[in-house]
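Quick one: co-fold with tryptophan.
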Amino acid sequence: MARIIFSGMRPTGKLHLGNYLGALENWVKLQEKYKCFFGVVDLHALTTGYDKTEDLKENIKEMLIDWFSAGIDPERSTVLIQSYVPEHAELHLLFSMITPLPWLERNPVLKEQVRDLGLKDNINYGLLGYPVLMASDILIYKANAVPVGEDQVHHVELTREIARRFNNLYKNVFPLPQVKLTKIPRVPGTDGKRMSKTLGNTISISDSPEKIEEKVKTMITDTQKIRLNDPGHPDICVVFTYQEMFNPEQSEEISAGCKSGKLGCVECKKRLAQALINKFDGFREKRIYYEKNPKIIREIVIEGSKQARQVAKQTLDEAKKAMNLDYE
Ligand code: AMP
Ligand code: TRP
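Sure, here it is.
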């Protein structure tokens, strides 16, 4: 059986290390074995950003440049824009009829967003239904697996619940998709909390070498290691966590050097910045090509969305038929 993958990202601009290690790097690998659909989920971006849509087009462009520079291959994978495939929205409406409100009200991801964005009681209808739209994105392509970071696991579980409920109520139309995590499903930000744009603790994969150096310099290390020769505790240091993620070849030596007091934080950070600069060097080069040729990006997503629609339409017809919404 052909295995199908769907994943998406909200177009909030340039991607950070968390997006990369938690999802994008995995997407690039999965293209080799699976039929992949990757969606720019612009409607999801509106659930919180409905009042500042002026940056949306630029953000979509920036995110797509990151995808293609990192190796998303439109010859192999279908790259689409959610709002260009209106079947997502129609399936969302059908799913909204069968989704009990308590499933959405107790969603821990929503609670976290409300806290981080300071929304309090000011939650709109679209934001509450975020996971229902996400279920539609995934199930409209009958995806079996969803590569995302750890913060999205609960949403994929809800997708399974919605699929199960639909299949039980009407007919077995949808698979029950599984989440696909990477080895590093949660990347900390420069302050040690989860890396997230809202928290302003990100390093972008397209940041210039100077910017990377500057951001790494400001990272807080083991607070008990004050002088160079003080022994450090790599296990509680975010800089060391990054060394393990981005500089694995040197991480053992760095850990030993830190613990013995031979390696100071300044040198340790220099090595980390260099590893990050090297890791994303190739991406920065490819970026320049797409920045000069934005028309290519447009053509790719228009064509991808067209192809996606053909698949999406079939599933939607099947779902409507199962619900007796086929009046002929
Ligand atoms: P977002 O930018 O929130 O739309 O996230 C896009 C993808 O990146 C999703 O699969 C997230 O789970 C993943 N992601 C976002 N932040 C992190 C992080 N700090 N660590 C790991 N994965 C992340
Ligand atoms: N909620 C996801 C995020 O914030 C984005 C998303 C929307 C998504 N629809 C999806 C991810 C479907 C995977 C599958 O990262």
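If it helps, Residues 40 and 312 are 15 Å apart (CA to CA).
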